[in-house]
Amino acid sequence: MKTVCMGNTNRSIGVALIANILSMSISLxxxxxxxxxLIKSLGKETYSFFPLANNFVSYFxxxxxxxxxxxxxFFTIAKTSGNIKDANSIFSSLFISNIIxxxxxxxxxxxxxxxxxxxxxxxxxxKSDVEILFLCVFSGMIISLVTSVFxxxxxxxxxxxxxxxxxxxxxxxxxxxxxxLFCFFAPSIRYMGLVIVIITIYTxxxxxxxxxxxxxxxxxxxxxxxxxxxxxxxxxxxxxSINNLGTSLLMGTTLLLGNTLIGTAASGDLSIVQTLxxxxxxxxxxxxxxxxxxxxxxxxxxxxxxxKKAVIQGQKILGMITTVPCVLIIVFGKxxxxxxxxxxDASYLQILSIITILPLLLHSTMWPVYAxxxxxxxxxxxxxxxxxxxxxxMILTIILVHITSLxxxxxxxxxxxxxxxxxxxFIPRYAAQQMQFPWHTFYPHIVKSVIFSIIFIIxxxxxxxxxxxxxxxxxxxxxxxxxxxxxxLYFMIVLERNDRIWMFSxxxxxxxxxxx
Length: 516
Fold this sequence. Notes:
Elements (H helix, E strand, L loop, with lengths): L12 H30 L1 H4 L1 H20 L2 H10 L3 H31 L1 H4 L7 H21 L4 H5 L3 H25 L5 H25 L12 H26 L1 H9 L1 H10 L1 H26 L3 H38 L5 H29 L4 H24 L4 H27 L8 H24 L5 H23 L2 H19 L1
């Protein structure tokens, strides 16, 4: 008997995309309004400790990924093939293992909280606030770890519309909490940690409710715990841990290096600069979270050709939605930063933003390809090479900071060069090889998107040169016109006729779904 996902599991990708784009838009809107408010209330040096605390969470995530990163993949394949017993065993084994892992992590977390002023450059007046911030952020991670198993439900049942609904409510709640705490109490970074705790508790509860609704025949039981399942998850996931370690060395140590090598002011600049790339990463991740379950389900059915089509289709969808905004940030980023953060001269930060966002022009069409490696359970070589690339980035960064006067530019430059080398040269070739496709299978759309980006930058330059953008009204008018032009050019130049027909069919499904 097959495990049944309760509710409508036949919703189109288009409907899920719309729901998640709405969720993402609300998330970006909340961040857009809150970030300058928080930076102004706290100061950029104080604010920088919040992303630093989240970076430490990402370091601990390296350990938890070994168990959790492949869980959705194995559970979805078991569910799709109708093996209820196996699916229940994976679910229960993961939940129990995460509780044990959470208890183990309490020790190093406590050590970091106690010694945070030794590990980082923390002003004396901020010591207690930073300690409370780290305590709250770490607590949020523990809660998220314990409840993460319930998040498998929306993935396995391809109900990413529910995932979007969860995030919409979460972002509205987060924005409301920040406004209440910072408006009615003296501004303090400790409140940002408190919000994290509240949000993760909410998310855990909602994920549990969805899991009970979507997977009524899946439950947690000590009797279903199997060491073999834990070992299977760990054996596959350990490479994702190494991969995350490489990612942290490559991209997750930027603020830490800025804080320790240059100072709190440098980490403050980098924390501001990363907001725009982080906005884009949010967009990319949102769309990818919709596409990946579909790729996994198609792969589980055993048709390699259909899997290839699903991945390439994912490249095209993700590229169309994210490449144009990336270009707009490159062209109009200075005007945005000046208006958003009330900066008199945003030129320096814009240079850092451009350097930081360049890899995203590749990521936008590469992520479905990378997801295929995870779905295909072929992550060993990518993980090892990414770890080596991360080490090279660290060494190169330290050398550049010490032998040049580039400062924060050296940190961003080193990361970007290493990212481009890894994600463009290796990942697409490796994914194709593991599926026994021609080596160039996933390159055409990547190359097309890069060429389009160059052309679109040239098209946008006259807007920037001729029209002075010094108000939000002018920014949104010019940016909106450029966005429409970019989407039209991408739709007509980069996409093929069959892609356009498929896009129109998805739009029709969305309209029909709304009418129903």
